[in-house]
Amino acid sequence: MAESVFLILHGRGGNAVDHWQNHLARGLTNAGVDVRYPRFPRPEDPDLTDWLHAFRETLNEIPEDARLTVIAHSLGSILWMHHAASRQGLQADRVLLAAPPYIVREVPLAGQPLGTTRFYPPPMDKIGIAAAGRETTIVASDTDDFATFAQTEAYAAALRVPIYKLPGAGHISPFYGYGEWPWVLDWSLGRANFPPFPNR
Amino acid sequence: MSDVFLVLHGWGGNKPEHWQEHLVLKLKNEGVDVRYPTFPDPKNPNLAAWMTSLHSVLDKIPSDANLTVLAHSLGAILWMHHAGMSETPAHGPQAARVLLVAPPYVIREIPPLDAPPGAADFFPPPMSKTGIAAIGRETVIVASDTDDYSTFDQSSAYAGGLDVPIEKLAGGGHISPYYGYGEWPWVFEWALGRAALSPKPNK
Fold first, then answer.
1. Distance from A58 to chain B by nearest Cα, in Å?
2. Cβ A157–B111 below 8 Å, yes or no?
3. Largest Cα–Cα distance in chain A?
4. Closest CA in chain B for residue A168
5. How distant is the alpha carbon of residue B57 from its chain centre?
6. How far is A79 from A77, CA to CA, in rounded Å?
7. CATH classification of A4-188, choosing from 3.40.50.1820, 3.30.450.20, 3.40.190.10, 3.40.50.970?
């Protein structure tokens, strides 16, 4: 039986203490499973090349026969799309891409560092996405400042992956009530299914 | 000095209930000069063809006209392209006032699923502060916080890039008939100089 490994990919800025990914990492660690939670270089001013490099180092340390679950948030989801287009590395079993931002490189949002804008547009490599993950799902809300649900649907359609709506969840971050997020821990451990269960 | 009103529609052209249709009708009833071009093949917009059409409309407006421009959706993006080509204005007078309503925010390579073919080529529009100031003395973006084609932060990025103010129309969706923007009394009053910003939402 292949060993289960969980890989958590954070977004720009790294994660505030109360972020659901921190709760998830702790919850998984407490469950006694193997969790990899890399901190990408200069999270406040991300550089795509540096992030991809760090990501690959982490991925290469995971046993080839591992049963891998990837849980990415925000810019971490965009990073995964870049990785998928490289068509390298082992295939993950399940991939959850939460709240990928939709940004026009030439017209970034106020306060976005230059390095972040270079992550856009992410490659829409549907074959690469299928090769990188056996089952990939996007979860997005309809009140996210970084992407409308219709924009995120454009990602899902181009990548040929299903998308689920988490109504009213904003950027699916602590500010919008996504500190501890019970559903995502249960889903990771195979104890809950789609659709995602929102926090209230 | 005569008043001229130029109304720029978005992709697909406008259904009869669109606020721009109501606006044109009511302005005509007031007896003022309204220009409301239908751009070529609106359901399959082509940037070069639309720009040629816009320029020929602008060329016919008297150089001393007091011009007000009211653009919606892709029409607002078209205006930004016009600005990018107009650091020295070459077509028509400088507009006195320009209202850019609900400009979509689109990644050219990953457009929304219901965008007509050709629309993606309008993106990204150039962010020319100099051009936008050269073609309009006063330019304002009006956007909502419930628009499928742009978050308010994304619309604010246009405002920042062009160095123009932005006003929020809360809950206005794409500011189209579907979202309650058939007849829109405020925009008519604003056009005639009888109402000021901020825009008054329909409820």
1. 29
2. no
3. 48
4. B146
5. 15
6. 5
7. 3.40.50.1820
Check: CB of residue A83 under 8 Å from CB of residue A52: yes
- Do A29 and A97 form a contact (C-beta atoms < 8 A)? no
Predicted-assembly ipTM surpassing the 0.90 threshold: yes
What is the maximal distance between C-alpha atoms in chain B? 45
Pairing label, strands B95-101, B66-72: parallel
From first to last of its 203 residues, chain B has per-residue pLDDT tens of 799 999 999 998 889 999 999 999 999 999 999 999 999 999 999 999 999 999 999 999 999 999 999 999 999 999 999 999 998 878 999 999 999 999 999 999 999 999 998 999 999 999 999 999 999 999 999 999 999 999 999 999 999 999 999 999 999 999 999 999 999 999 999 999 999 999 999 97
The full set of domains in chain B, from first to last, is 3-191 (3.40.50.1820)
Bridge partners for A8 per DSSP: A71
User: Which of A104, A118, A138 to probe by mutation at the B interface, max B CB count within 10 Å?
Assistant: A104
| Closest residue by Cα to residue B7 from B70, B83, B77 | B70
- The predicted model scores a pTM of 0.96
Cβ–Cβ contact B127 with A under 8 A: yes
B152 close contact with A: CB closer than 8 A: yes
Q: How far is A26 from chain B (nearest CA, A)?
A: 33
